[in-house]
Design brief:
alpha/beta; 7-stranded parallel beta sheet; 10 helices; 11 strands; globular
Length: about 375
Amino acid sequence: MRSFSRTLVALSLAAACTAFSPSFGVGKSSFRPAVAEQHATTSSNVGRTSSTQLSMSATVDLKGKVAFVAGVADSTGYGWAIAKALADAGATIIVGTWPPVLKIFQMGLKRGNFDEDATLSDGSKMEIAKVYPLDAVFDEPDDVPAEIKDNKRYAGLDGYTISEVAKAVEADYGKIDILVHSLANGPEVTKPLLDTSRKGYLAASSASAYSAVSLLQKFGPIMNEGGSMLSLTYVASEKVIPGYGGGMSSAKAQLESDTRVLAFEAGRKWGTRVNTISAGPLKSRAASAIGKEPGQKTFIEYAIDYSQANAPLAQDLYSDDVGNAGLFLCSDMARSVTGVTLYVDNGLNCMGMALDSNSMEGTLTGKV
């Protein structure tokens, strides 16, 4: 069970993995067209915070556009939030889901388990037009080892390598316009870098960074000119985040560097824009699997508390905040924006000092 939980980090870690991809109950907002409504919320981490409920879909029209979102397995992740924002603007949504949880996700969709989280600004439900099995650590069929083919969690499935999924999408939809990479995995994410094995380090890079390169390699040729690719990263790429180990910080640094190189190459080759969002911490099922010890807070809970205590904006971060930022970057409103790492973290990335540090007691911390 422990290995299964850790592997789930592959589905949403990214963005924040990022190990921080999703949201939790109190961390959800609902889309409201062209509204700036503020309200107070209460969570286990903060007393009173405010959230602004916004919808960019009122000004963005993606009707006729097709978006493929890789790494959706439930309704708590950033991938889902971005898909929802794109759907609210009229895009057709198709997703790629990790094979071991594919049946669970499909059953959840069929039973309406995600209906509440799928509600769009007009009251309708987001429709996922098709779900494809996708294991993004395999590029071609020959890459799949026998132990995976014989694994019961892959039983009855085929065509889940990146190249095969791209061909299937082309056969079903011809061209697509938007490609979202919302997946990552660090099998040794709970280990300090000094204790990380070569195998674990390379596995993190393969699943969390090279998978984005491979996706664009295979999907780029079937993207319409002016298309957009978006991935999810985390500030551990450039700052030390104790507890975010196993080579995941290195993988995120690779992802951000690759974003800039791919922006140039894909821009010149296909006219495709490539950007990434560095999202703040949110409590998701995948992120909660990191560093969980009985009777103690998880790594993600510490990260959320730290962010709320030290970020310039002392407010909750919602999955929809990342969804709306993703909508902007994937729309024509950002037609001249490429090669960018966009921070959606209440400004935590700009801080160089922890305001809640014991050494800061009795000083001016900006509180009013």
